[in-house]
Design goal:
CATH architecture of the largest domain: Alpha-Beta Complex
Distance between the termini: 16 Å
Helix content: 25-40%
CATH topology of the largest domain: Aminoglycoside 3'-phosphotransferase, Chain: A, domain 2
GO molecular function, one term: ATP binding
Protein name: Aminoglycoside phosphotransferase APH(3')
Organism: Serinibacter arcticus
Structural class: alpha+beta
Number of helices: 8
Order of helices and strands: HEEEHEEEHHHEEEEHHH
Pfam families: APH (PF01636)
Family: Belongs to the aminoglycoside phosphotransferase family.
């Protein structure tokens, strides 16, 4: 996953969804999916800023599943409002209203990793504290993830089939890598995006991935700072297990 550089071909479906607004590519994932920001401007559009996600069907999760989760989570925490979503035989798409804030991997925050890491940790704790486990209809537990991986033809190592005991059940983000936290310009948590796998699981399923992803985005040495900002002590056993599960599935 990366911020696109150079020219990006805009799919016809995305142009239609933009309805004449100016399009800027902001994200590309490893499956060929693209996210664009649509803004009124020289092209004559007048709609509020929104984000258009478009990509091939994905067996791990879907944009319809993300739309369902965003609608549910939006009752409790700051996530994008779903405006429309759909699919054809090969691709799917999701249109959401813009949420104020920049990704924690925006150049502004890559230049200030100490603030970004703190906000990612604090924001993840806020998300976990806000979303009610008892009312959540979505499952992201280990057995559900292993079953999904097997359906996609992924053989999960035997040592990952039995997880550590649960520390605390929460409604997990499901992809808590640091780019999916939004940060206000004053260094406050703004919200979360990309919740297609949101569901109930041990909080370390999110924490381990968030901590691991600091190394990919800011360099080594930030993992413990993120966990401290979340408000717990490191847990090497659960961190290692859930990092391995993430990489395996």
């Amino acid at each position: 996953m990366s911020i696109p550089s150079g020219a990006v071909e805009i799919p016809a479906r995305v142009r239609a969804l933009a309805r004449g607004d100016r399009l800027t590519p902001v994200w590309r994932n490893g499956l060929g999916g693209l996210t664009f920001r649509a803004e009124g401007g020289d092209a004559g559009g007048s709609a509020p800023t929104r984000y258009l996600k478009w990509g091939p069907w994905n067996a791990e999760t879907s944009m319809a599943a993300e739309a369902e989760r965003l609608v549910w989570a939006g009752r409790y925490t700051r996530v994008p409002e779903v405006l429309e979503h759909g699919a054809d035989g090969e691709h799917e798409w999701l249109v959401t209203a813009a949420v104020a804030g920049r990704s924690a991997v925006d150049p502004r925050w890559l230049a200030d990793p100490a603030t970004a890491v703190r906000v990612v940790g604090e924001g993840l704790r806020a998300l976990h504290d806000a979303l009610p486990v008892a009312d959540c209809p979505f499952d992201w537990g280990v057995h559900a993830r292993v079953a999904n991986a097997l359906q996609r033809g992924i053989e999960v190592p035997e040592e990952l089939l039995e997880p550590p005991s649960i520390d605390r059940l929460v409604v997990c983000h499901g992809d808590a890598c640091v780019p999916n936290t939004l940060v206000h310009d004053d260094g406050a948590w703004a919200g979360h995006v990309d919740l297609g796998a949101l569901g109930v699981a041990d909080r370390w399923a999110d924490l381990a991935v968030a901590a691991m992803s600091t190394g990919w985005n800011y360099g080594p040495g930030w993992s413990d700072a993120l966990i401290a900002a979340y408000g717990v002590e490191p847990d090497p056993l659960r961190q290692a297990y859930y990092a391995d599960l993430w990489n395996a599935t």
